[in-house]
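Table 4 source record.
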Amino acid sequence: MALKKSELYSSLWQSCDELRGGMDASQYKDYVLVLLFIKYVSDKYANHPDPLIIVPQDGSFADMVALKNDKEIGDKINKLIGRLADANTSLKGAIDKAADFDSDEKLGKGPDKVDRLTKLVGIFQGLDFGRNRADGDDLLGDAYEFLMRKFATESGKSKGQFYTPAEVSRVISMVIELGAARDNTLTIYDPTCGSGSLLLKAHDEALSRTGWNLAIYGQENDNATSALARMNMVLHDCATADIQQGNTLAAPYFKNPDGGLKTFDFVVANPPFSNKNWTNGLIAAHDHYGRFEYGIPPDKNGDFAFLLHMLKSMKSTGKAAVILPHGVLFRGGAEAGIRTRIVRQGFIKGIIGLPANLFYGTGIPACILVLDKEKASGRRGIFMIDASKGFIKDGNKNRLRAQDIHKIVDTFTRQVELSKYSRMVPLAEIEANDFNLNLPRYIDSTEPEDLQDIEAHLKGGIPNRDIDGLAAYWQVFPTLRRELFEDADRPGYSQLKVEASQIKARIFGHAEFTAFNEQVTRQFAAWQQVHRPLLMDITQGDRPKALIGPLSEALLESFLPTPLIDAYDVYQHLMDYWAEPMQDDVYLLASDGWSAATVVRQLIPALSKEGKATYHEPHDFVFSKKRYKADIVPPALMIARYFPSEQAAVEKLEAQAAALEQQMDEMQEEHSGEDGLLDPVIEDGKIAKANVTARLKEIRHDKSLADECAVLEAYQALLEKEAAASKKGKEAQKALEAKVAAKYGQLSEAEVKALVVDDKWLATLAAAVQGELDRVSQALTGRIRQLAERYATPLPRLAEEVETLAARVDAHLKKMGFAWN
C-alpha cells in the first residue's frame, strides 16, 4: 500500500530530527536532503533504459545501504556521491559539494559517526519512492519542500533565507501571468534562487495551467544552497534547469554573446533583505551591464540593486515580481530618486503588502513589487493591496492561508477595489505624495473605532447609529430589526423588545433566518450534486492535485454571491480539510484504488528500553488482542452506518457503569475522613474490593460496628454491580469491534464510496458550512447583546444604586458605633 503524504513527511522529519544531535539545522539539512535525493534518483533511474540521471555502478542508494556499520562509512559515502556526480555533468560540483559525510566535527568520531550515518541511511532504506508518486503529483518533490520548510523553521534568524515560503511563491507565480504563457520557448529566471523553491512554483504555475514546460534559469551565491537547488530541480522533474553558483550582482552568469545581460520573459526573486555587502566585487558607477541607469543604491543597502538587476534582465515584454522590505516604498535619499524614476517609467504594475513574520530570515513585513515592461508606457496608476491582516499563526511564524492567497490573486488579476484592502492609485496622486509608495498613505486598513455614546450612558437606550452599523444583516433579515428593537423615549435611540437572554433564540427562530439557512444549505447541496460524481469516480492513476482545483474553485464561486458569508472562509474549510485527511485519502485511492479504503493495518509495537510494547500511532480497534488502524474508513463511520444499535447498547452499559462509579465516589466522599465509616478501607485515596471484603469479614459479628458494616455492604454491592456492568460493556464493545472487523472484508465498492464520499468527506464539509451559518447568528447575537449590556444601566440609575448602597453601609456603621459621613 502506498505511503500517505502526511506519514511520509512526518516520519522523515521525526526520524531525521532525532539523529540531528547538536548540529545546527541549517547544516544538518544538507545531509538529509542529499540522502533523500540519492534515494529518489536510485529508485527512479537505476536500470532505466533512458534515464535523465545516470546512476553508475557503486553509485546507488543500494550501494550506500551496503556500507551500513562499515567503520569507513563516511569516506565511502563521499566517494559514492562523487561517482554519481562524475556520471552527471548537471550534478558535478553540486551534490558532491553539498555535505561532507566524513566530517568529525559535524558527525562525531569513530563509532558515533558510524552509528549516526548507519541510522540515517536506514531511515530512507525502507521507503520505495519509485511507487509513491501519483502521476503528475510531485510527492517526493513535496516531501523535499516539507523538509526545507522544517529546516528553515529550525535554522533560526539569518540562516533560513535559503527557502521562500511556498505560499508567497504561489502568489508571485500567479500575479505575473505565468498562467497565460503562450509557448514552450518562454523563460523564467531567478537571480537569487536559493534552494529553487520560488523558481519551481513559477514553473509549475505555467505547466499546470498551459502545459508549457518553460526553461528555468537561476543563480545562487551560496555554494551549498545552489547544490540544493540543483537537487530540488531533479526531484521536481526539472533536471534540465540551468542553476549556476556565483554572485549575481558582481558576476552575473547569464549573458548574451555580445556580453550584455541575457533577458527573460519572467523574472522572480526573493533577494536578501537590505544587503550591506552588495557592492563586493562591483563598482556600480562603472557597471558593465548598465543596470544602474536609474540611480545607484546606497552602499549599505542593496534592495534596489537587485530590483534594478531584475529590470535589466527583463525582455521588453517581460513580467517580474520581487519580494522586498517595506522600506523600498518610502526610504529617502538615493533610493527616493530611483523609486521616482522607475515609477515614472511605468515599470511598477502593482504593490502587495504582506503580513509581518512570514519569512525565515527576518520578522519584518515585506511587500511584493509586480513589474511589467510590456504595458509600461501606457500605465496611469499602480494597483495596491494591503494584505497584511490575512494570515494564520504557524508556530513562531505567520503563514498565508489558501484563502489569503486566493483573495490576493483574485483582487490583483481583476483589479478589484475593496474597502480597506485594495485600490488603483493614480500616478498623479503618487506624484503629489513625492513618489512615496507607503501603503497606509493610500489604503486605510485600520478597523473603525467602536465609539461609546455618552448620551446613551446618561439616559439609556441603544444608539440607532450602532444598530444601523448592522445594515448587512438587516438587508438579509429586513423584518428582524423591528422584532428585536422599538423606539426609545427620544429620537435617535432604540431599546430591546426582548430579554437579552432571548436574543439568540429569537434570531434562530425567525422566518427570515430560517429561509437564509435553507438557501445556504441548498447552495451547498447544489455544489455537492455536481461534484459528488467526480469524487465517486476517482480511479487509480488520477492526479489528486487536478481534483482539488476544480472542486475548490467551484465551491468558492458558488458562495461568492451569498451575503453575510465570506466565500473565502468556505473555500478555506475545504482547503484545510484537503491538507489533512482528504489529501491522504485521495492519494491512497489514486495509488491503490477503492480497495485501499477497506485495508486495516495491524500496528506492530516497538519495545522500549524497559521491554514494554509501545505504539507510535493510536489504534482504531482491537481484534483478537491485536491493535488495528484503518487508514481511510475509520470504525466510527462503519458503526454509524451499520451498527448504530450495537453502539447505543455499548454506550448504555458504559453509562450504567459510570453512574454506579459516581455513586461509589459520592459514598466515599460522604464516609471518608477522620472517623468516617469507610476510612479503614481507603488506601491512597482509593477503595479496593479486597479491602472491603477483608474488613467485612473482620467486623461482621461485631454489633458495635453495625453502622460501618451496613455502609461497607452497600459499597460492596455497588462494586459488584459496577464490575458486572463494566464487564458487560467490555464484552459488548468487543463484540462490536469483531463485527466491524468482519464488515471491512465484506464491503462492496459502492458501500466504500458511500462511506468515504458521503459519510466522511461531504459530511465534514456540510458541517463546516453549517458552522459558517452559526457564526452569522453568533456574530449578530453577540453584537446586539454587547450593545444592550453596554447601555443597560444609565449613569443616573447607577448613581442611585450607589447612594442606596452607601446609605445601607452608613446605617450598619452607625449601629456599630461608627460615623463616616
